[in-house]
Write a structure and sequence with these properties.
Order of helices and strands: EEHE
Strand content: 35-45%
Strand order of the largest sheet: 2-1-3
Distance between the termini: 16 Å
Number of strands: 3
Helix content: under 10%
Radius of gyration: 11 Å
Shape: globular
């Protein structure tokens, strides 16, 4: 599976900030929240439009 074309929707478990991030860039890493530094949690993934 090519994860470079996948996108994920993430939200912060502490302050509820939401972000759309490339799955290839975040795969296997803990993503910090840009606002509070808490842990971002992936909600879902989808394929990028062709």
């Amino acid at each position: 599976m090519d994860t470079t074309t996948m996108t994920g929707w993430w939200s912060c478990s502490e302050c509820a900030v939401e972000a759309e991030l490339a799955v290839g860039a975040t795969n296997g890493f803990q993503v910090p929240c840009p606002d509070c530094g808490g842990v971002m949690v992936e909600q879902w993934q989808w394929d990028a439009a062709a």
